[in-house]
Amino acid sequence: MTAIPLTAASVAAAAGGAVVAGDPRQIFDGVSIDTRTVRRGELFIAIRGERFDGAEFAAAAIEAGADGVLVPRGWPGSGSRSGSSGSATLSGERKHVAVIEVADTTIALQSLGRAIRRESGAKVVAITGSAGKTTTKEVTSELLSARYRVTRNRGNFNNHIGLPLSLIELRQRPEIAVVELGMNHAGEISTLVRIAEPEVRVWTNVGEAHLGFFASLDAIADAKAEILEAARPSDLLIANGDDPRITARTGAFAGRVITFGIDRDTDVRASSIVDRGIEGVSARVTTARGSAEVTTPLVGRGNLANVLAAIAVALEFDVPLPDIAARVSTLHPASHRGEIVRLANGVTVIDDSYNANPTATRRAIEVLAGSRATRRFAVIGEMLELGLHADNLHAEVGRAAANAALDGLIAVGGPAARVLADAAVRAGMAAASVRYCATSDEAASAAAATLRAGDLLLVKGSRGIKTDRVVDRLKSEWGG
If you placed Cys at 282, which of 14, 295, 338, 450 could pair as Cys (CB 3.0 to 4.6 Å)? Predict the structure, then answer.
């Protein structure tokens, strides 16, 4: 199928702007918002951020090979159609560069993403939740790939900039696009829904992530509930039926609702669950289209819930249940999101270092507790963006570590991490087996000095704490 051409004229029309220099017929190979990675033939979109103004780098993007720039009206380098002013000062081979002026470059990017999303004809599946968005996105994409051409947003391109950049990739006309919607303030999901216009929405859970920006968990649930907005009667919501904050809000959805869960009677439900520790989880999955025995290498019940959400999506797109079960058995975690790393010296690491919130961290500790390892250790990094709730929530995680009877705990970060360590000791862990480190580099040294063959180590923490350095250090020392 022919890709959607990205011309200066079509971009200007979608973005509500005008081509003020260069050829309106100029075709771009892609878009970029970063002069460090812009490639020859691309359109550079000059986004204004809190600490930078992309318009200041537009000329550099042109010199780097961009065939066009999208800039605010009045950009000094725009010149005229005849090539006077800024563009005329470029070298001869760069005089063809198209300049598109708009009122607001961020809104223009969003409008362009939405326009291409509409023209592509792709169905869009949008996923939100406090935890598990990326895993659910990856699993959903894998299951749908059994029958369709599927694309997904790169990494965690899930905000008001990353999402439209991902939607622009729909110019290759996939049949289905699976995207995640992130937020840390009210109103953000609403914006993303109106950009993506999803036919299928998935709401995984409500947890304490970003609680520092909200008054309560209910306020977080209200912000996540923006996933329900602007729905058409034909749209579908796939919702976690085990989460009471979700079920209390799904009545506002204008379309159909399918539920998934473990503990309650839901439309897609797991029962007879066997937790196999670091080897994954097995369960019987019951749906309106039959039942199947499912085994996934992804660890823990939290990941099982993510898999159930993905199964619900795949069934709605008529992927056969046997094909779903077969693909679930071959899943692999995304990088630093529950990866099992077996080091050459006999130590096994659960690398869940990409990010952390209290709910997800407690679930990871449960996986650690259920293992058959000789000794079980955890490096837990501070969980950020919890505001005034930070001390209480870190103390809860410390108590969970003690209740899991871990053989050792290293808490990493600022004062809240120290609270976590102290709470673990007060809850019964021996003081000698609990250590506080200010940095992940210190924690890596401490872990390397402690671990031996047969040990199992969980590494988890917020991205800002950089607990992935612990895993990288152990790999470099012992191979993995």
Answer: 295
* Neighbouring residues of 383: CB distance < 8 A, sequence distance ≥ 6: 208, 356, 357, 358, 361, 390, 393, 394, 397, 416, 461, 462
Report the C-alpha dihedral over residues 130, 135, 136, 140, rounded to 10 degrees.
160
Domains in the chain, CATH or no CATH each? 8-105 (3.40.1390.10), 121-328 (3.40.1190.10), 339-478 (3.90.190.20)
450, 377 contact by CB (below 8 A):
yes
| Exposed / middle / buried, residue 290 (Cβ in 10 Å: 0-12, 13-18, 19+) | exposed
- 8 Å CB contact between 319 and 310: no
For the beta sheet containing 150-152, the strands, ordered from the edge strand earlier in sequence to the opposite edge, are: 150-152, 176-180, 123-128, 200-203, 236-240, 256-261, 268-275, 281-287, 290-296
Tell me if 43 sits within 8 A of 26, measured CB to CB: no
Residue 217 falls in which region: left (phi positive, over 0), alpha (psi -120 to 50) or beta = alpha
DSSP state of 106: H
Contact 66, 44 (CB under 8 A): yes
Half-sphere exposure of 167 (CA within 13 A, CB side): 32
Assessment of whether the complete model's pTM goes beyond 0.70:
yes
Can you tell me the mean pLDDT for 17-42?
Answer: 95
Would you tell me how many other CB atoms lie within 10 Å of the CB of residue 263? 12
50/48 Cα distance (integer angstroms) = 7
Span 82-114, pLDDT tens digits = 333 334 344 445 557 999 999 999 999 999 999
Q: What is the per-residue pLDDT across 109-167, written as a single tens digit (0 to 9) for each? A: 999 999 999 999 999 999 999 988 999 999 999 999 999 999 998 766 889 999 999 99
What is the reported pLDDT for 154?
77
Q: What is the mean pLDDT of residues 437-455?
A: 97
- What pLDDT shows up at residue 81? 38
3-class secondary structure, 412: strand
Confidence of residue 277 (pLDDT cuts 50, 70, 90): confident
CA distances for 238 relative to 209, 396, 415, 451, angstroms: 21, 30, 39, 42
Q: Give the three-class secondary structure for 431.
A: helix
The answer to whether 418 touches 410, Cβ cutoff 8 Å, is no
- Type of residue numbered 420: L
Burial (Cβ within 10 Å: 0-12, 13-18, ≥19) of residue 207: buried
* CA pair distance 164, 28, nearest whole angstrom: 16
Residue in this structure with the two tokens 């108590």, named with its chain if needed: 399
